[in-house]
Amino acid sequence: MSTWKIDPSHSEVQFKIKHLMISTVTGEFTDFDSTLVCAGEGDDFNGGQVSFSAKIASINTKNEQRDGHLKSADFFDAEKYPELTFQSTSLDLSGGEVVLKGDLTLKGTTKPVTLKGDFGGVVTDGYGQTKAGFEVEGKINRQDFGLTWSAVTEAGGVVVSDEVRLLLNVQFTKQ
């Protein structure tokens, strides 16, 4: 059994959502933590357990006014629900492909989520640290998590879509 911690300086936790249904806005969480515990002998990630959390106050969409609105009760309600969390229920690694299933908790609501992607491999860096890389993504419906704010343009178009794409490009360091 081995334990790995996320390397925040070499990781990105992003989301993408349609704005006005014609373009995509990218946001990120800049304050996050994650641990990956391998289930079996050595560094076999298959069957491992992943726990992840992000501080809602760290949300960044490169627009201060929008970020303030996202932190408000209209969306994440960061004051009442300061973190989002994910706890894996399964991690399958086969042929370089990753399927990570777990429970995502946002704004006090927990729902199952599946993230799929690629395992980048394991290397030893120039400082002698063993690193592992993963790129995974998935989709959620924001309404399912109580993120129900909505507006309609004068022409009747939707301001922000319900579907949110989650994208994680993460690097872990063996402890």
Brief characterization of the structure:
With 175 residues, this protein is mostly beta strands. The chain has one helix and eleven strands. The mean pLDDT is 91.
Tally the structural domains.
1
Order of helices and strands: EEEEEEHEEEEE
Q: What is the assigned CATH homologous superfamily?
A: Lipid/polyisoprenoid-binding, YceI-like
Sheet with most strands: strand arrangement = 1-4-5-7-8-9-10-11
CATH architecture: Beta Barrel
Ranges where pLDDT stays below 50 over 5 or more residues in a row are none
Structural class estimated from helices and strands: mainly beta
* Share of residues in helices: under 10%
Strand content: over 45%
* Silhouette: elongated
Q: How many strand elements?
A: 11
Rg? 17 Å
